[in-house]
Each structure stands twice: as structure tokens, then as C-alpha cells.
Amino acid sequence: QILIATITHLLPSTEASSYEMDKRLVVSLLLCLLDWIMALPLKTLLQPFHATGAESDKTEKSVLNCIYKVLHGCVYGAQSFSNPRYFPMSLSDLASVDYDPFMHLESLKEPEPLHSPDSERSSKLQPVTEVKTQMQHGLISIAARTVITHLVNHLGHYPMSGGPAMLTSQVCENHDNHYSESTELSPELFESPNIQFFVLNNTTLVSCIQIRSEENMPGGGLSAGLASANSNVRIIVRDLSGKYSWDSAILYGPPPVSGLSEPTSFMLSLSHQEKPEEPPTSNECLEDTTVKDGLSLQFKRFRETVPTWDTIRDEEDVLDELLQYLGVTSPECLQRTGISLNIPAPQPVCISEKQENDVINAILKQHTEEKEFVEKHFNDLNMKAVEQDEPIPQKPQSAFYYCRLLLSILGMNSWDKRRSFHLLKKNEKLLRELRNLDSRQCRETHKIAVFYVAEGQEDKHSILTNTGGSQAYEDFVAGLGWEVNLTNHCGFMGGLQKNKSTGLTTPYFATSTVEVIFHVSTRMPSDSDDSLTKKLRHLGNDEVHIVWSEHTRDYRRGIIPTEFGDVLIVIYPMKNHMFSIQIMKKPEVPFFGPLFDGAIVNGKVLPIMVRATAINASRALKSLIPLYQNFYEERARYLQTIVQHHLEPTTFEDFAAQVFSPAPYHHLPSDAVGSYPEILPSETPTATQVDGADLASPMSPRTSKSRMSMKLRRSSGSANKS
């Protein structure tokens, strides 16, 4: 809370100041705030903060909420603090009996200049004029953006499953890409039809790759057994905080259940021969056979029962049956005694019997002709409905189909995103800069040398040939960091090799913001002159040296001859597990801590305190380098350079065309025929079969160019005529 209030108090005056060190002070406070946030438990950060002011008590806000507000102000300017909703907290809110934020300070001296003209190192450096670039003017904004992205990506889940040495993804565009056989980024990627490069908000590089899903895993390993496609979409994002890779799969729903019986199909057939039935008597019992659900059911129907749709057969007339039922159950309704209601009445007097027979014969003849026509053409395909089959799933023939689908769903292909979503120019320079960007560390890195001096050793050779030390020394080295295997270590190497020429293991320490590797003299081989020379080169080039001395005399700086070694932290064992600290530094090196010259430290906290002092000493030495840039400033500069040099301004039509087909492809990869990109060899279209569906034309570049020029000539001719 004190850091938040201090940054809020200093930010307005710092933005207006032209002195770079004022801005560096706020940057240091932001990085210190980041370290505190990552060290505190998340429960503490989410606790509500109650300010002393009356107005602040009305709205309850957490510490993390205030942190993001002050970071927002650092990115967009202190003028955002004028809005009460975006004001984090002030120093007066923290006033209490135990803490006075406005305590008067006395006896303060002006700090010594960092670049002393009389120092030994400054005399070897060429004078460099201060360059006021846009990057330097935005020091606070870049640092605040770095803190925001770091908190979003790593707060509450560091270290990840890859281990503390892995902060960002190691996946590249050529991995799992069946159109690229190279082991690194190569121009072969530009000919792949399944990959496209984008720029988002002029700050983030996005690569979209369509890859084949795992066949032996349910749902391709991504869908947890749900029904999905046989291709996945891989998104590789490079931003200020690092590189991240995500695999996505389209999910259709639960998988189809196996073992279901096929639906039973019923076919109706007409009887070609009908036997005349004698009209049953009024009390006759009729026997019906009805098929329901595949079962044959027999039941008896009497005329005394009401005729329903379930009891009436197809050849029976419903009205005739109903009239017969009324005559049986209600004889008083009969118009003529003894004659059922379904028996036709005699012909009218005005119509002769011959006329009536002619009408009946005409109706029967028409009925007979219609019946014969149906029986004759019943099996004709034109006389019956075509059976409707279930459509076969269509397999997209484009190698970029699912990427295009995902981008469309996310709204990246819309008009609204044209100002913030662009294509990248594909050339070899882009690949070189991407490789260079991926090789940069996303954390602060330090390399520190550790020496062991046994009793009586006062020369370089005897010190460098030590292969081990006392138990107290080994315990101290084990407390500096954990041992990592150099052959498979994926973090900061500090110049050490993976071929075992510089040792098998070494102590390594990492947080989400810093990496430290220790060049321990007793871990490196010294069995030959070449090994000693290589050991001395690694140890001597380090600017901070930790010396564990068990000699009775004080350690002298010139024992290990080197132009570096600007800071020496010498440890002398004492009695009762206490240790004396001697710090030797060159005059131009600014102050650092927490240990100081002459300190006495308990052995329990010795490794932690020495490691923190060595890291701060390395930071102090780096601050002496003219125009030195932190890791995040360097990464932001690389990203800005890539965007400026390789962003391809296109019209909406050209952008849509390149998203639809990133690159024309003429043949399938040899190991992916039939399975990727989801088309069979027989379905591969030829030059005469291309109809502009979803597949790029396989014509040769010269042919396509000539055809395109012909179309252009035709269009220009028609334009002249019009």
C-alpha cells in the first residue's frame, strides 16, 4: 500500500520532469511493487482496503484493485487520477499512529553521479550523448505495461508445469507442421498453406497454424472425448511479456453412442388380388390382424362397438361402418324397418335404373383404371418418393479452414478490426527477427561467479583446481539455488555449454522476474589446461564474484587476474555458525545491499542474503552502462521494429483473400496424404477441375500470371469502351 500511494504521489511531477533519473525512480518502484505482489499470497491481495477518509469508506476496494488503478495511470498518464473512480489511494490514507507518511527528513546528501569522469571504467568508454528517443520518454508506460501483462499471465500460477526455468512457450511455427520439415524457422513456412502471420494492436504478433490432431487420443487430445474435427488450430502469440502457444479444437457435442440398432423401415405393399367379401351380418364377429411396433396383434371387433381409427381397416369405409353401428345400436333411427342405414336407398323416381347403372359403371371404371395404373407403375422410381439419406459430413479442402473459422468467430475478419488487425510481410528478414526475438530472455538475468579458497591457497592455479570444498561451503552453494542439469536446462545458461565441457550441473535460481545462474569453480572440470582456460574465461568475465575463503589471511583482489570482477563479496567462516562479510567494489559502483562491508550473518540466512546482495550488485553495475535498456525495454523495441518494418497495409479485399488462402499449394506433403489437410488423394483437383471452391489453384506461377494479365487487359478494354 505504501508503494501504491508513493507512485500515485510521484507520478504527476515525474511525467512533467525532464530528468531521466526521476522516471527511473518510478520504474524501480513499479518493479519493486511487482516483486512484492508475486511474493504475497493472493488472499492478501484480495482483502478489502479501508482508507481513513470518509469518502473512501463508502466504496470498498481491494489492494489488487488499487494496484491495477495505479498501473492504469502509469500507462495512460496521471490525468486519469482526476477521475475519482480511477484514483488508487493517497499517502494521507495510510496515516496512522505507527506510520507518518509526511515525516520530515533531514541530513540528506545528494547522490554521487553514476558516471564518474575519473573512474577507471568511464575512461575506457567513449562519450555518448543522451539520446531522447520515444522509448526513453515512455519508460514509465512500458514498465507499467510489463507489470500488467506479468500479473495477468503469472499471478497465482507460477511456476507452471514446465518448471521455474520455463516462463514462456518453446513452441515455434515449424513444430507439428507437416508442410515444413525444417527444425527451425525457415522460408519454407511462407509456402505452407496452413499458416498466416498477423499483427494485433501494433503490439502483438500472432501466428495461426492449422495442424493435424492426434489420432490415437480421444478428440485429438483437446476435446476430452467430445465429437470434434480432425484438425486443430494453434495460436502462437508474441507480446511484451513473452511467447505463448495455445491449441484449440472445434467441439460439436457428445460423441455418437455406438451399438444403437438401426431404425426399422416399414414398406407398404398393395395386394394385387382382392377377394370379394360378403357383407357381414349385424351381429357378426370380425377378426382383425394389426401390426404395431413389429408385433402381430389380433383382436375381435363387433358391430356393437363404436368404429374408431384403430379398428377400421384400410379397405373399409368409415362412414359405412358408422351407419351400420347406428342401425344396430339404435334401431329407432332406421328409416326403413329391417334395412340398415348403410344400404343405399332406391333410385329417385326421376332417374331410371339404366341411368343409375351407367353412373355406377363409370365410377367403377375410373376406379379400376386408377388401380391398374398404380399397380403397373408402383415400382417405377418416378412414381414414388426418393428415400432421404443422411448427408455425409463434408471435409474442408482448405488447409487453413479452421483457422479462418476461428478468426471469423473471434471477429478478427470484420470491418471494425481492420485498424487493429493486419498481415505481416513474409520474407527472410521477418524470420531472422522472429528468431532473434525468441532468443531474448523475458526476465532479468544475472550470472555470478563462486570461488572456493581453502586454507593456505594464495595463487590462481590452486584455487581454480579445487574440485570440492568443506561441508559448510557445499551447504552454502546448495542454498544459493537448486542444481540443474546443463544438458537439458531450458532456462538462462549464462554462457555455459550443454556439451558437458563446462560441467554437468550448476546452481540455478529463478523467480517470475529474475534468473540467476552461478558459475561455481568447483563444479567446472579442471583436468587439463584447456579446461582451466575455459573455466577462467567464464569465471573472470563475471562482474560479481562470491568468494568463500577459509584462509587465515584476507582475500586479495589480484589473485584471480581479470578486467572484470568489479564487486567482490568475500565470506569468512567464524565460530558458532556465524560468517563475516567483506565487500570490495570499485569507486564508481553505486550503493547496493542488503549486506554491507563488515556485516556478521547467521549461517541460516547466509545464502539468501548473499544471493540478494549479488543480484543488487549486478543491477548496480548494469546501471553504469550508457543507454542501458532493461529486458522489457529491449523486447518492446524489437516488437516495435518488427511491426514498423513488416506490417503490410492491405485493403479489406486483399486481407480477406490472404486469410482465405495464405499460400497456394500444388501437392500434399508425402507423410500426410489422405489425412491432412482432410482430403483424399482421389479428391485432389486437377487444373481443369478447379471451380473456385475452397482450394487454391494449382496452376504454375507463370500460367496464373499470364491468365491474370489477360483478365486485366480485358477489364481495361471494357472500361475504355464504357
From TrEMBL:
- Which UniProt keywords are given for this protein, alphabetically ordered? GTPase activation
Q: Does the keyword Nucleotidyltransferase apply?
A: no
The UniProt entry, under Pfam families, shows: Rap_GAP
A GO MF label: GTPase activator activity
Q: Superkingdom, according to UniProt?
A: Eukaryota
Q: Name one GO biological process term.
A: regulation of small GTPase mediated signal transduction
- In this chain, composition skew of type Basic residues spans 704-714
A GO term from the CC aspect: nucleus
Rap-GAP domain boundaries: 434-642
In residue numbers, the region (Disordered) covers 676-722
Q: What is this protein called?
A: RALGAPA1 isoform 4
Q: Look up and give the organism this protein is from.
A: Pan troglodytes
